Sequence to fold (526 residues):
Amino acid sequence: MVDNILYSIIAAALVGVVVIVPTASCAKLPCSTSSTPVCLNLQNCTNVDAWGLQVEVGTKGQARQKICLVPSTVINATYALGSEICNNDNGLNKTCQASHGGTFDRSLLAGFASRSASLKGGVEGFWDDLNGPVETFGDVEFAVAGFTQLKDYEIGVVTNGTKFNLGQLGLGPKSSFLQALKDQGFIDRLVFGFDAGSQSPYNPRPGHMVLGGYDQSRVAGNFAEFDINYEDTEFRPCPFRVEIQKIDVLFEKTMKTTAFIDMESRNPYACIEPYDNLFRFPSGRLASLESIGLGQGRVSSDWLPNLQVNEPGWRYKAGNPGAFSLDIVLNGLDEDFKIVIPNEELAHPLRGIDNNGTWAVDRNYTELNIFQESAVRNTIVLGKAFLSQVYLAVDYEAGKFYLAASSPSTAGCNPVPFGCSNNHSKKKDSITVAGYVGLAFGMISFLVLGILLGLGIWFWKSGRLDRYRRRGVNITERVPDFGTYTQQNTKDMRVLARQASLRPCSNESPDRQTFGSAIGLRRTMS
Fold:
């Protein structure tokens, strides 16, 4: 019997050695990608009210035209506003050009061959319902400032309609822009990261959009995971649909919190849309905001300022309303996402474009970042005022998007691929952490089993094996804290590391794995 016990101990030790090898091998799976993520600036690219990406559009041998486009998930195509939009503006061409971020004059491009339909075959039903179908398309050399040039890239030229602010760079699930980047080898996957920055006059900061990855420097917390879902949006494109657990209004003067939206409310869903600046609510929600204290001192919507304002918000005489913030909780797949939108991102002096096409501010009035009209299709929209505090990362190929608290840092962009960590960062991705945990566990198991083997031989020879009592070994995993930002979400890294270590080894490169397994592991910062 003693021999059997000894053989069992030896066999266990050998199994420990065998277990270590595949665990360590899986952990060492290299992070490889054939392309480097590219960071683009989001800012007032025409120095006025035209926030977005500056692009250059032209044809071979012709001077390029610079226009400003705003990232949008409402469409998949790329739409530039034609010069006709401002030629019909009753002489206020400078104001129109400035507020629309410049227009595209196809008559100045001899090589631009117009056609009446898109060759991509996509139908932009939501846009068509609001503005009528786009009837002019053509191929151009399309260059994003500071990045690259796409050849034979199709754009649509908008010549009619009014339900738009600037031209749109479509980033929907079938984005022609993202697909062209992938087809021409600039990115590996249909993924991007989005930091809206801040348009607050009190603490403005530029934003970034990363193609093929995300900006690690702008993420201040763990990512909450969401499915890309199109249901119950009343025919409005809404890839980044979220369920609202609650939105509370906190009035700073009285420190009184008032419930605005909760899960008991009818249709507690919202669309995250980077094209829109403001929060947009259906008429019933707007009435609720008025009743809880934001209606006092409000100027009638019929009053028109002497400024061109693309997205008019609620307006008040200066001094109203009192400062407040929005406490928002969204239901994620594994954990809730919590964020607070401060007053500086919700209220500001009235601003817009004057008759000379220049930026102007009227400090006699205050404007809230709440759209004054009822939301289209009765759908709540969380625009750039919301995204000023939230980092958005999207992986269309995995069917997921992710939200994290954004960092207020104005440091330069630090783009990293999905599934890879930056070598200069203290933060590790899940594959690396899971590998280290697995390797540490294997090494400790090997040492423990080796000790047991030695003790077994000693006890066997000394005749004291019957007095041996095997004791378990507790392994405590510790992950150091990083950073100084207060984390909004608290996912246990050790649980995730164990889950990740249970995945079988794969020859697939990390950048092909789900984004959530690579960055959902970010440590809670304190």
